[in-house]
Structure formats: C-alpha cells, structure tokens
Amino acid sequence: MKKRNRQTTATLSVTILLLTAAITSAEQTAAAEATASLEATSTAEPIVRGTIVETQAETQKEQAEENIIEETAIYTGLADPHTAEFKIDGEAAAFQLEEGLMEQLENLRSGTQMELKYTVKTFDNLPDVRQLVLHEVEMTDKKKVD
C-alpha cells in the first residue's frame, strides 16, 4: 500500500508540475499578446489633444480674432511688465499685452502715435469687468505727438 501511495503521490506531483507549466505558458502568451496589442495601438494619434488650458487659450484666441478693434491712440507708457497705457480720444486706457509686445513698447517715448489692434475680454461671473487685450501695435508717426 505504501508503494501505491508513493506512486500516486509522484503521479500527482508530476500532474501538478505539468498544469503549473501549462498555466504559466498560457499567462505568458496572453501577456505577450496584450503587449503586442498595446504597441500596435500606441502608434495611433491620441483622441484628446492639448491640455484644458491650451484648449481654452485657443478658443479665446479664435473668439478674439473675430472681434478685433482697430484704433489710433497715443502711447503713454508701461504700467507694469504686462500692461501699457494709451490715450484714445483723450481718455486713458490700460491694455494687457500679448507676449512679445513688451519688447516693442519699452523703448518708445510717451506721446508716440500708434495704431492698435485689440480685443475686449469679458468675464461671465463679473459682467461689469472688461479687460482690453492688445494684440498688435504699429507706429503711425515716429515723432512725439503733443
């Protein structure tokens, strides 16, 4: 009887080893197929492009391009690194500067006449607040205007 138990135990051990090998092989095959599938789909373009901030900025720029205002104004000076002041029809107005405009304005003399292209930005939660955003400037007269 002991010999028979040893033989049964040996047979069971071999069967367990074979089953373990088969399961491991199946898992490795499934993992390889999943990896191949991922590699095949990762070369495709992503469904979502850009961040929320980039998307909002692009939407605002598209809306701004539709509502650009062109005006002649007198340059007064820079209020800070991102704000310039101009006089339009004798009234002072502060404009937020788009990137690159600071360099164009920082060496100009106060009183220089310019053509402005700007938009008016409004805020849903602050209906009385308007922000003037300057997109382009061009000198119309290089001399100081009094």
Molecular structure report:
- This protein has 3 helices and 5 strands; from the N terminus they run ααβββαββ.
- The protein is an alpha+beta fold.
- Strand 4 and strand 5 form a beta hairpin.
- It starts with a helix and ends with a strand.
- It has a 5-stranded mixed beta barrel.
- Residues 1-26 form the signal peptide.
- Keywords: Signal.
Features:
146 residues, alpha+beta, single chain, 5-stranded mixed barrel, 3 helices, rod-shaped
In short:
Keywords: Signal. The chain is of the alpha+beta class and 146 residues long.
Write down the secondary-structure element order: HHEEEHEE
Q: What's the β-strand tally?
A: 5
- Helix content bin: 40-55%
Low-confidence stretches: none
Name the structural class.
Answer: alpha+beta
State the distance separating the first and last CA atoms. 120 Å
Return Rg in Å.
35 Å
**Biggest β-sheet strands, sense, barrel:** 5 strands, mixed, barrel
- Summed over residues and divided by their number, the pLDDT gives a mean of 80
Strand order of the largest sheet: 1-2-3-5-4
**Percent strand:** 35-45%
Note the overall shape. Answer: rod-shaped
Q: Helix segment count?
A: 3
List the topology elements.
Layout: H1 2-42, H2 52-66, E1 69-80, E2 83-88, E3 91-97, H3 101-105, E4 112-123, E5 126-144
Parallel strand pairs: 3-5
Antiparallel strand pairs: 1-2, 1-4, 2-3, 4-5
